[in-house]
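Collaborator request, handled under Task 6.
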Amino acid sequence: MTDLKGELAKSERKYKALKSEVDGLVSLTSGSNYESKTKPEVKKQLSEKLAAKREELTKLTASIAEFKKLLPVDTAKQYYTEQVTSYPPP
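Structure tokens returned to the collaborator:
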């Protein structure tokens, strides 16, 4: 049997890391000198990388939503209580 609570926690950690990567790429590609100083092949690579990361983020979001649906109410309550009491993260 799958540990839904553990899988949800792992997926949420992965989501945060991936979201940070996407935000960094968006920041990089929206810089003032990006269009004028970046070679076309580098722009293409970054664009493809950003698209792939966004697609992965979309799939991960759907996965997290599915885990949340599958969690029993008591387990979900305990999980979110732990999340709140451990805030801010280390």
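The cover message to the collaborator said: "Helices lie at 4-29, 34-37, 40-70, 73-85. Residues 4-84 form one domain. Please let us know whether this matches your experimental observations."
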